[in-house]
Every structure is written in structure tokens, then in C-alpha cells.
Amino acid sequence: MKNNLKPLFEPERIAIIGCSPDAKKIGGRPFDYLIKYGYQGQIYPVNPNYKTIRDFPCYETILSVPDEVDLAIIALPQKLVLSTFQSCIEKKVKSVVIFSAGFSEVGEQGKEEQEQITKLAKEHNIRVLGPNCLGLFNVNKGMYATFSTILEEEEPLYGGRIGFVSQSGAFGSHVFTLARQHQMGFSHFVATGNESDVDVADCIKYLVEDENTDVIACYVEGAKDGEKLIEAFQLAAKKKKPIVVLKVGKTDVGMQAAMSHTGSLVGSDSVYETIFNQYGVYRAETIDEFIDIAKAFAELPEIQGNRVAIFTVSGGVGIMLSDQVTEHGLTLPQTPENVQAKLKSILPIAGVNNPLDTTAQISYMPTLLEDFMEAVLGSGQYDAAIVFLGFSGLKPDTLDSNITSILNIKELFPKIPIVTVTLCNPESKKLINDSGLVLNEDPTRAVKMLSALDKLRKSMERSQKEESQIDSPIDQEAIDIRSVVSIETKELTEYTSKQLVSKFNVPITEEKLAQNANEAIQFANLIGYPIVLKGMSPQILHKTEKKLVLLNIENDQEVEEAFHRLKNIIDETENAKFEGVLIQEMLKEEAMEMYVGSKRDPVFGQMVLVGLGGIFIEVFKDVSMRKAPVSIEMAQEMIEELQSSAMLKEFRGKAPHDITAFSKLISQFSYLINSLEDQVEEADLNPTMVFKDGKGVKVADALFKLI
Q: b/e per residue, 417-449, with b = 16+ CB within 10 A?
């Protein structure tokens, strides 16, 4: 289905089915809002009980409406929704909003009816928002297709550049109200409800293309289509439109609550976290942070680096801010000596090293703040600034001069983001926001705003770099795993697993599979002593526990004895099938044991994992994860994220390991797994031996589990 949401977001003709003259009723609210807030399109009330509603002709059914309809709002009891939706299809309505609840969120019958709506929507190319949703509005068009009470008293602030999408209507209303208290306006508000058709990803794609939206803010409980959501994130990154997400369902209890709320597939939180990081989406942890970061992205200029200057009236707050700036990955460069001298000449008692303490003199010297800021920011050594003014927001006379000073600095340095921090009353808050300054009453939250800008800068740089990377090192057409290796079971032995990966240029140990003792001796001599013998059975995948791995075999006699011992263990194990004995080279060079693996997530597909190898992957859980496939450069980033990465580098005279070869192997494996998207449940290359720099890598053991 095409992502044509224009009739939903920008309708010229709206029918309200179940319209009411009572503005307090669900069917009356959208009608009232459209009239009250100046909607310029056509409105068609539909209700068989009225001839007119507020001087508008009222129609018996949607089929009675004389004109084409872009958007139909269904505000009816659940039992009437499906038949009404079928009438909308007959009328060739282009989009529908279904307020009614009682579908997939309540039980099997409701789920079946919702699935029927989804099926009909796809068949007839009609876009559906809901059911069980609060609706949407488009502020610039004066289009309010919602029954939310948040619009009863006042219209949303006009001119907002943030598009807000929420899977929860009540949560969306709460955030909208808080944002309005912060003098923040939205370009759009969408509550997606049960997402029978239109989902968060569809809304993101629309808002990315919308010229009135610069930032997209999303409340997310889960996603049914992970690939579609990733495509939306990638499109936003390409168009340089930042996304802020508040994703709930971190804990098992939270996940269960989200499942019962929207009926969406929630998925593993660690995977969502990985997806957000990989595709440059900022994840907020609290509602305050959600609002702050959306505001920062919408109203502050792009940050050019991570160097921050702090201007404060309190030495204590300056120290606290210094700690927090550093903790959030920003830097606090010292004030250049020539600038320090200039500042001392202006105010000898001031603290002139960053953080810069203007002291209480700021209240008695009207140009002091401006003079300090111009001298410091004019040095070219800073990328952002925080101005802490204490409680001056509660003193109108002082506040006016400070606003003027900061505005003058903002005009002088338009590319430097400045966050003003002061306590406020509602009047001063409105005054500061109306002046065009970005305000936060909490110093810690101000630091997070700048830190988020810096994260955005880095993620944009990374996404542009990733776009320029070379294509897949292997053919990206889907691979039928059964045509590559001959297998009957879902669990592949080490031998079969390594045969598979070796066909795609992943380096493995030298090895051969012997069916009898004579073959084992022959292969051992070809490979060269000492060797390793491993018993292979699809039913015994954890070989060490069954004593199916024998190391340091030195001669033909030991090979013969070892072969029979391993075969006997397998033959005596109930239901175990003997595949052969693997004759494998004994790796003698010094190496680090690392782990490379994959796990198929039900929402996002194949995820690649890297960590410390052997048994340590389970002990330390030091793992980095990405959605497959990954470039060599991204694979190197994954390695750098590991706490154990220091062990791969040069240390106290020890030569570094071959990180370049290891990064290449991770990338090759990720493309292979991506090609086997719907065939592999999980895979482990563990251990993968990473030799000293220039010596390469080898997979010493591997396991694949098929779907």
C-alpha cells in the first residue's frame, strides 16, 4: 500500500459519522473544533437523527453525502464500525479515523474484526487511523479530527515545528498539555491507537516530507513491522530531521502492559535500544527529557562541536554544571589567557576561567553579561553556552536587561546554541520564549539539551558516512541454505556450520570430516600434528559437556584411539546420530578468543552480536549489537564499544591484535546472516580467534540453528 497520507493529514472534505450537536460528546467535539478553529475545508455531519447541525446540512449516511470525501471520522459504537467502514469503501472515501474501541485490545472477536478492517483497507487502498484512537490534528490547516478535551479551552500554539506521534492517546494529551505550558507548539498531533493500518512508521515518513515539520517526537510501545520503522528512521536521517522517542516496555511487566494496551508486538528492549542508536534516534527516558530534547532540536541551531562555555551567577552551580557537562560527553575548555585578562579588566572579582562566574554584579552592571559572553564566545573556542541566571526570571527589571543581552549575543553568534537557565513564573516564561530564547529552569536538563545536540551531530555524520560505504561483500540475493549445505535437522553441527560460512569467505580452521579411523589418520597427516578431534552429532551441540573435544593429539595411534572413543560416546547417547569426527588443526599462535553471533529478533530481524569469546560471553555479558548488515567501519565501532576491546590493543609492550581482519569478518558474517534473514534463528562463531596484528582471524567453532 502506498504511503499516501495526504487525504488523512490534509483533507479538503471531512465527513463526521456519528456527529452530534453536543460539543461535549465524542461525535460533537471534532465538529466543534473544526468550526471554532477556522477549518477552511468542507464539513459534512452524518447522523440519521438530524436534518441540520448548527446550520450545516446533516446526512443520513456517508452514502448520502453529495461530494467526494477525503476523510471520514467514525464516532460510533463498536458494533456499527465494520458496516460503516464498508459504506466508506463503497463511497470511495480516501481515509478514515476510527475513534471506537473494542477491537484487538479487548479479545479474540475484536481482533478478528480489526483484521477484517486491515484486509479491506489494503484491498481498497483506503488509509485507516485507529481503531481505538484519539485521532489527529494539523495545526497549520486548522484540521482537528480528534475528540480530545485538550482543545476545549484553547487552540494549539500556531507555528510549532514539532510533529508528535503517540501510540497512546492519553499519554499524547498529557505531553501536549505539558508542551503548551512550556510555550511549545506542534505542527501535527497523531494518536495511532491499535494501528490496523496507519502506524508510527507511516506517520514518521509523512512528517519527514512535511515542510512545516522540523523535528519528530514519538511515544512508542512496540512495532509490528521493524523493517518499515527502520526505513522511516533512515529517511529522517537522510532528510536531516531528528527523531526523539520515548519507548516504554523496558521491563517484563512494562512489556506485558504495552501488549495489553495496543496489541502491538513489543520485542526486546535491548534490540530497540540498538536500533535507536544505530539509526540516529534519540531515546528519552522521562517525559521532561522527551519535551526538552524535542524543543532543543526544534529551536536551537545545529551544534558544531562539544566545547561548552558556562556563564553563571553562582560559583556552586558552576561547579555542578562542570561535572555534568563532562559526564554527558561534552568538554569545558579553559578560557584563553588573553580573554581572561580582558574579563578581569571588566570585573576584577569575577571568576574568569570556564565556568565563568559573573557574581551578583550582573544585577548592577547591565552590560556585564553581554560583555563577558561576547569576549568568550568571540574567541572561537566554544561551540555552545549555558547561561545560569538564578532566580532573575522572577524579577522583571533584571530579566529584561538579561534577555536583551543574550539576544544581542545570539545575533552576533547565530551558530552557537545558547540555553538560558532561570527560575520563572508563567509571565516571565512566556516573555523569554516569545523573545526567541531557549529556556530551561533546571541546569541539569539544560546540559542534557546540549548533549543531545552533540549526539545528533555525531549520528548525522555517521549516517552520511555509512551512505558512502561500499556495497555488500557477498551477493545480497536471498540464499537457500539447503542448496548450500545438505542437512535434515534444524541444528547444524560445527562442521556443517563452518562449511556454510566458509563458502562466503569467512576464514575457518583447516579441518576435514572423517567417517572412519583410517580417514581420520589420513586427514591428520595432511593437516599436520598436533591436531584436535571433535565428535560431530546434530543432537549434541555442546561438545565439551559430553567430552567430545580432544586436544593435542600427537600421532596416528592417538588419532585411532580418539576416533573410536568419540564415536562410542555418540553411539551410546540416546537419539544421537553420528555425523563423523572432525579432524582440525591445533591453533598454536597467540590469539584472543572473541565471539561473533546473530539472533533473529521477531520485530527487526537479524541482529549481529560481538563480544569476548569462549565461556566469557555468558560470564561478563560484554556485548555490542547492531542490525545486520554492518559495514567494516561499523563493525570496528562495535569492537570499540566493548569493555574488553582494550585487550585487543597494544598494552604494556604486548603487540595489538588484528582488529582490521576481525572487523572484516564481522561485516562478512553480517551480510551472510542478512541474506539468510528468514532461515536462521541464531548463529555463533565462538570462539573466533583474533591473532596478532597482520596475522588475521580464524573461526575455531561455529553453530547455526535454523528456523
A: bbbbbbebeeebbebbbeeebbbbeebebbbbb
Question: Distance between CA 670 and CA 680 in Å, rounded?
Answer: 12
**614 neighbors 608 (Cβ within 8 angstroms):** no
Element (H, E) at 626: strand 623-627
Are β-strands 243-247 and 215-220 bridged in parallel, bridged antiparallel, or unpaired?
A: parallel
Question: Cα-atom radius of gyration of the chain, to the nearest Å?
Answer: 32
Looking at residue 648, the DSSP 8-state letter turns out to be G
- Cell 479487548: give the residue: 106
Residue in the block written with cell 551558530: 415
- pLDDT tens string 401-412: 999 999 999 999
Structural contact between residues 496 and 487, judged by C-beta atoms closer than 8 angstroms: yes
| Chain mean pLDDT for the chain | 92
Residue that is written with C-alpha cell 545570539 in the block: 410
pLDDT of residue 267: 59
What do you get for the CA distance between the two ends of the chain, in Å?
28
Pairwise CA distance, residues 340 & 337, whole Å: 5
Rounded Cα distance, 347 and 368, in Å: 8
- φ and ψ of 311, to 5 deg: -115, 125
Distance of CA 282 to the CA centre of its chain: 7
Arithmetic mean of pLDDT, 390-418: 93
Contact (CB, 8 A) for 367 and 488: no
C-alpha distances in Å from residue 34, one per residue of 23, 155, 645 = 11, 11, 59
Distance CA 106, CA 650 (A): 59
For residue 120, CA distances in Å to 115, 132, 261 come to 9, 18, 24
DSSP class of residue 488 equals S
Classify 591 as helix, strand or coil.
strand
DSSP states of 82-140: HHHHHHHHHTT-SEEEE----STTT-HHHHHHHHHHHHHHHHHT-EEE-SS--EEEEGG
pTM for the whole structure: 0.91
| DSSP run (H or E) holding 577 | none
The SS3 call for residue 545 is helix
Which of 347, 355, 427, 426 lies closest to 385, judged by CA? 355
Q: In which band, very low, low, confident or very high, does the pLDDT at 629 lie, cut at 50, 70 and 90?
A: very high
Q: Which residue matches cell numbers 478492517?
A: 117
